[in-house]
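Task card 7
Instruction: Convert sequence to C-alpha cells.
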Amino acid sequence: MDIKGAFNQPFDEAIAFFENKLKLPTASYTDIWREQHSHAFVVAGAMNDALVEDFYNALYVAKTQGTGLVAFQKSFDEIVAKHGWSHHGSAEWRSKLIYDTNIRQAYNVGKYQQMMEVAHLRPIWTYKHISIINPRIAHVHLDGFTRPADDPVWDYILPQNGYGCQCQVDSYTMTEWNKTGRELSASPTIEWESVRVGTRGSNPRDVLRPIIKTAKGDAPIDPGFAYNPAKAFLQPFTVPPLKGYDAVLKTRTLNELPIDKSTIPPLPTPQKIDPKMILPASTAPAKAVEEFLNLFGATLDEGVVIEDAAGTPVVVTKSLFADAAGSFAAIETKTVENINLLALALASPDEVWYHWEQDKAKADFMSDVPLRWRLKRRYLKTFEIAGEQKTAITAFEWSRIGWVGETTLLVDNLQEKMDELRVGALVYSTEKK
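Output:
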C-alpha cells in the first residue's frame, strides 16, 4: 500500500501529513503518546537523530514514489547495518510494522480530510472491518457501525485502532444510505479502562483506553490508538505530557521564535561547586558517562526517564554519549572533563530555551523538498568554581546527532555570554523578572 488517492493519483493530503512531522529520537514507544504521533515521526528505540532521519527518508521515498514494502525492507536492512542498530523482533517483522503503521496512518489522515471536505454531501459514515487472518473481535464488533460524520465517537474509533489494523471508514450520501434500508447505529456508550503500557521499556505509563459499547459487543480500542490522527495533525499543538512543546508547536514552521527582551530574567546566581566536579582529562570515557548517569539514578545497564524543569520527559541512558555500536570512544576530552557540569545543567538548569534550527543537509532524492526545521531544547547553567574565582557556563542541547554540550570556563563577561546563548523562547527560569 502506498499513498495514492482516487484513480491512483498521489495522495497530497497524506504526503503533507508525513512531511510536516518533527523527527524525534525515542527510547520507547511510550515516550510520545496518542495525538503526539501526528506531529512527530519516531521509531521506538532509535535514539540517534541520524538513524531516525534515515528511516524517515526511506519511508518518504516509499510514500511519494510508491516503491512498496519490499523496497523499504531492503532500505531497513541497509540502515540497521549502517548504524549498528539493535532492535526488538525480526527485521522482517519490525520493518513491516514501521512501514504499515506509517503508511496507513498517513493514508487515514488524508482520507479523513477528503471525507470532511464533502461531509455535507456524504454525511453518513460506516466503519468497515477488513477481514484478515485471526481478526480482532473488537474490530469485528465495530463492523457496520454507522453514525453521522459529526458524531464525537469518530474521535476515538477512526482507524487505525491498533498495530496492523486495516479497517477503514466509508461514506454515503443520504440517497445511497436510504437505499440500503439500514438504520443508523445507536449512539454508543463509552466506558474508560485504565491500563498500564510499556512495562518492558524505559517509560511505562498508566493510560485510559475507551471501550465502545456496540450492539454486537464491547469494542475496546488498543492503547495509544484511541484518537483521530487527522484532527490531531490539524490542531496547532500536541497534548501533555510533552508540555514544553505546546508553547512552540503552533509556530513550528518559523525558523526562530523572536526573543521578548522584556521577559528575559536577571542573571542567575551561579551554583558553587567543588573543583573536583571537573574530572581529570585522563578519566576513562565510560567512567565519566557512569558519573553522568548516576546523578539521575541511571546506570550503564539501565536508563531512566526524567521530567525536565520545563515539564518535558527526557530519556537518560548511556546512548546519549554512545555511538550506534555502543562505544564511548568518540567522546571528546573536554566533554569528559565537564560531564558533571553537563549533568547538572540538565538536572537543575538556570534557564531552558526552545528554538528552531534548520536542517543543514538532506538526501539527493529529496532535492525538491524544502529544508526542514527542528525544535531544540537548550539548558543553561552557571557555576562558580569554589576557591578558584572561576565562573563557568554550560549549555546542554539536543542536536542532529543527539545531545551535545558546551562548557565555557573562565567567563570574562557573564552577561555577554548568557545573552549569546539565550536563543528562541524562554520556557523556564529560576529567576523572576
